[in-house]
Design goal:
Layout (H helix, E strand, L loop, with lengths): L3 E5 L5 H11 L3 E6 L3 H13 L3 E6 L7 H12 L3 E6 L15 H29 L2 E8 L10 H21 L4 E8 L6 H8 L1 H10 L9 H12 L9 E4 L17
Parallel strand pairs: 1-2, 1-4, 2-3, 4-5, 5-6, 6-7
Helix pairs in contact: 1-8, 3-4, 4-5, 6-7
């Protein structure tokens, strides 16, 4: 059976591009996303046109058993999951404290933190039994820094970071590589940044900052994910941060280049 890379959160930016990179490397890429069946089919078709193997699945990670059932289906029908990419962002935009409802706060946690917990609980024991595997978790600046208007998002992402540390402490000795990847900057991704800015501003940004490699390119991010999944265990990376050359790290944000 094929070795599988399962991407949970496979949009047209990071998730879909990482899936395509693994497919190019001989994996069967299973791409899961919440909506846009047409866009998902397009990602799968592009991978197959390039000679790779891919399967698309629609799933809502907050629904009970959705993640668990997908992992069980992939393991049974497609092949062993060698790499799980958890790429759910849970970004709800800037909201003041009193504008952040209990439902929004809980939903962010269910997507970003509880979703990873469920995925890990389903797949990590399988990887441990096989003595190999990688869980690659996309994170954002909010995992390390809570800004105004980010009450729900930052707390969920920071909780996810601590969950990754606990997973690493339990499963590294059993052959499972847990990596927490902080994407500290704007990604050239139509499904995320494009929707947040709107089509006109996104096009302008790509024509200016993007033309000078000032946006983080998903294709280059994907190379890092591929590298992490194939590191030797004597030199595993648990956490790293990535940003474009023109941006400064979050702790120097006062002088960092702004969108």
């Amino acid at each position: 059976m094929d070795k599988v890379c399962l991407v949970i959160g496979a949009g047209a930016g990071i998730g879909g591009t990482v899936g395509a990179r693994f497919a190019a490397g001989g994996y069967h890429a299973v791409l899961g996303r919440r909506s846009d069946a047409e866009g998902l089919d397009r990602l799968v078709s592009d991978i197959e046109a390039a000679g790779g193997k891919a399967t698309g699945r629609l799933l809502n990670v907050v629904e009970p058993d959705s993640i668990e059932n997908l992992i069980a289906e992939v393991e049974q029908d497609i092949g062993p999951i060698h790499t799980l990419v958890f790429n759910i962002g849970a970004q709800v935009g800037d909201r003041a404290l009193l504008e952040t409802s209990l439902n929004v706060f809980e939903r962010c946690w269910r997507m970003a933190t509880f979703g990873l917990f469920r995925a890990a609980q389903a797949v990590c024991p399988l990887m441990a039994d096989r003595g190999e595997g990688a869980v690659l978790v996309t994170a954002s600046t909010a995992a390390k820094r809570g800004n105004a208007g980010q009450h729900a998002h930052a707390s969920a992402m920071a909780g996810r970071r601590m969950l990754c540390q606990s997973l690493n402490a339990e499963f590294a000795s059993r052959g499972v590589h847990i990596a927490h990847i902080v994407v500290d900057g704007a990604v050239d991704a139509p499904d995320t940044l494009g929707k947040m800015l709107g089509a006109e501003r996104f096009a302008e940004l790509r024509a200016t900052k993007g033309a000078a490699d000032g946006l983080i390119l998903p294709e280059q991010l994907a190379e890092t994910y591929w590298h992490l999944a194939h590191q030797h265990r004597s030199a595993w990376t648990h956490e790293l941060d990535l940003r474009a050359w023109s941006d400064q790290a979050w702790w120097n944000h006062q002088t960092a280049t702004r969108i």
